[in-house]
Write a structure and sequence with these properties.
Elements lengths: L1 E4 L13 E2 L5 E3 L7 H10 L3 E4 L16 H19 L3 H23 L17 H19 L4 H13 L9 H4 L7 H8 L1 H10 L6 H9 L20 H15 L11 H10 L7 H9 L3
């Protein structure tokens, strides 16, 4: 299976992964020949890349992502609904959303543990419209592997996964024109984006009544191990361990995803980026644990 840029060149080639709708129903089966109608659908959904089969022998090979293809398709929409309810000025909806979020945490932990102990070198392709939710699910899934490497007990692991799902909640408060801009952001726009850390944290601990442990990564996931991050420029172990874990995975998943201003990087290339930032951006202990899950 190979990943290629979405273009006319994929016409007549065979799809490399099953595609599901938000309800988990199969839309396109792996191995189907891509025609102009399917290509138009992929572009409309906001895909920039696509998986293709190298040979027909790959049709019956199981997916090797951390999460099943079906779960990858359905869970972002569950999270999208949860976030919408957390944003609503309605205590009952927020309470129900928190309960649904706990159930999603349990599902992620179960799905990862039923499939892998090592991280496979396969990317989850994301759509522009739902990037935030797909990204948050991926960060949560990888956090399971790191938490297990660090010998977290189950209760602490669940707490880490919850913090992972909530880490980018504040992006909901940022103007979509800035988030989806394809050119370099102006400094004033960058300042707006940086506000997502404090805005998200305040909303989570205020109207949503999450505790500090669940919300800590929302405000700290852009802090850097050497103190060069934001919003508070804290460093080292002054940054909560959950946040140090999520900072690394957040960067990894962003670098291996198509974004409005650039195409994705390969996993191997991204792991090299992470190693080069060890001790500067990332906690060396977390880097070691993360690289170990890819061996």
């Amino acid at each position: 299976m190979k990943i290629v840029e979405l273009s006319q060149d994929v016409l007549g080639q065979k799809l490399g992964k099953n595609l599901y709708n938000p309800n988990g129903n199969l839309l396109l089966r792996k191995g189907v020949e891509i025609n102009s109608h399917y290509l138009g659908h992929f572009k409309k959904k906001g895909y920039k890349s696509i998986y293709l089969l190298n040979s027909d022998l790959e049709v019956n090979q199981p997916s090797s992502h951390l999460l099943s293809d079906r779960f990858l398709s359905t869970s972002p929409f569950v999270l999208k609904r949860i976030f919408a309810n957390l944003m609503a000025d309605n205590k009952k909806r927020a309470w129900d959303a928190k309960n649904e979020l706990i159930a999603l945490v349990e599902s992620i932990l179960l799905n990862v543990n039923n499939r892998n102990q090592k991280a496979p070198k396969i990317l989850d392709l994301k759509t522009q419209e739902d990037y935030l939710y797909q990204h948050s699910i991926n960060v949560a899934a990888y956090s399971v592997l790191i938490g297990e490497k660090l010998k977290y007990p189950r209760a602490k692991l669940l707490s880490l996964v919850l913090a992972s799902l909530l880490h980018d909640f504040g992006m909901l408060f940022i103007d979509n024109e800035i988030v989806n801009k394809t050119s370099r952001l102006e400094e004033i726009e960058l300042e707006k984006v940086r506000e997502h850390t404090t805005i998200g944290f305040r909303h989570l601990i205020g109207p949503c009544s999450f505790d500090g442990l669940s919300s800590v990564a929302s405000v700290q996931h852009h802090e850097r191990f050497d103190g060069s991050g934001y919003p508070r420029k804290i460093e080292g172990e002054d940054i909560h361990e959950y946040s140090r874990i999520i900072t690394l995975i957040d960067s990894f998943d962003a670098w291996t995803s198509d974004r409005p201003h650039r195409r994705l990087n390969s996993i191997d290339q991204t792991l090299e980026f992470i190693e080069s930032d060890e001790g500067k951006v990332f906690d060396p202990k977390i880097v070691e644990a993360f690289l170990d899950v890819f061996e």
